[in-house]
C-alpha cells in the first residue's frame, strides 16, 4: 500500500483567514529574523476555531472531552463525500437529502458535506451557508458516525447580521456523542477518485475546545 495522491482540504492560516463572527483573524508576528538573530521564528496568535479546525466536545459541553483527550481514530477514516451542492442560502440539509449515501454511514466513516459553499469563502455570503438539520445529524450519530466535516464555517446555521441562526442542534448531537466536527474545509471538488481516505489530526492543545488541523484526502494504491 502506498499513497499516490494527497489533496489538501485546508485553508491557509494568516491575517487573511476569514474568522467566524466574533472571532479575530490569526496574527503572525516575526519574533526573530535571519538578519538579527540568524534564524526566523514567528509568534502565532489565533482562535482555536480559525481556519480549518476540529471542534472538541468541550466546545459546547462543560463535561465534554478536550481536544487532547479525544481518540486519534476520530480524525482519520474512509471519507463519504455527500454531494449536496446547489442549495440556496441558509437551506437545511435534511436526513432525506443524505439518502443516496445512507448505506455508507457506518462507524469509522468520515462524512464530508460538500455544499460547494467554500466558493464564497472571504465574503459575507460564506456565513449564509446551508446547514445540517438536527434530525440529519442525529441520523448520522445513530448510524455510528462520529466525524463530520463541512466546507463551510459550521454545520449549524451561523448567526450573522440580521440572522439569529437556529441553534446548535448538530454541534450538540455530534459533540454530545463524543465526536468531532471539522469546519472550513475546502477542495472537496478535487476528490475525483474512489474511496478517498481522510485525515485531519488536531494540534495537541492542552484542554483545547478545538484545534487547527491539516485536513487532507489521500488516494491509496494497492501496488508497491
Ligand atoms: Zn469550531
TrEMBL record:
Keywords: Hydrolase. It holds the Pfam family Cyclase. The keyword NADP does not apply. This is Cyclase family protein. GO terms for molecular function: hydrolase activity. The lineage of its organism: Bacteria, Bacillati, Actinomycetota, Actinomycetes, Streptosporangiales. SUPFAM superfamilies: Putative cyclase (SSF102198). Its EC number is 3.5.-.-.
Amino acid at each position: 500500500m502506498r499513497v499516490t495522491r494527497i489533496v489538501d482540504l485546508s485553508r491557509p492560516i494568516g491575517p487573511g483567514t476569514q474568522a467566524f463572527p466574533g472571532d479575530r483573524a490569526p496574527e503572525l508576528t516575526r519574533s526573530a529574523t535571519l538578519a538579527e538573530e540568524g534564524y526566523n521564528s514567528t509568534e502565532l496568535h489565533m482562535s482555536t476555531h480559525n481556519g480549518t479546525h476540529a471542534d472538541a466536545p468541550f466546545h459546547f459541553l462543560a463535561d465534554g472531552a478536550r481536544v487532547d483527550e479525544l481518540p486519534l481514530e476520530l480524525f482519520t477514516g474512509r471519507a463519504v463525500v455527500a454531494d449536496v451542492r446547489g442549495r440556496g442560502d441558509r437551506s437545511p440539509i435534511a436526513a432525506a437529502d443524505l439518502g443516496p449515501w445512507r448505506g455508507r454511514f457506518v462507524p469509522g466513516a468520515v462524512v464530508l458535506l460538500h455544499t460547494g459553499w467554500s466558493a464564497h469563502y472571504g465574503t459575507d455570503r460564506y456565513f449564509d451557508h446551508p446547514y445540517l438539520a438536527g434530525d440529519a445529524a442525529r441520523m448520522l450519530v445513530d448510524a455510528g458516525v462520529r466525524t463530520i466535516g463541512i466546507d463551510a464555517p459550521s454545520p449549524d446555521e451561523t448567526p450573522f447580521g440580521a440572522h439569529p441562526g437556529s441553534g446548535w442542534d448538530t454541534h450538540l448531537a455530534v459533540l454530545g456523542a463524543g465526536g468531532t466536527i471539522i469546519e472550513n474545509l475546502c477542495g472537496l471538488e478535487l476528490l475525483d477518485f474512489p474511496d478517498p481516505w481522510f485525515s485531519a489530526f488536531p494540534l495537541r492543545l492542552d484542554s483545547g475546545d478545538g484545534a487547527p488541523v491539516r485536513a487532507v484526502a489521500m488516494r491509496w494504491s494497492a501496488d508497491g
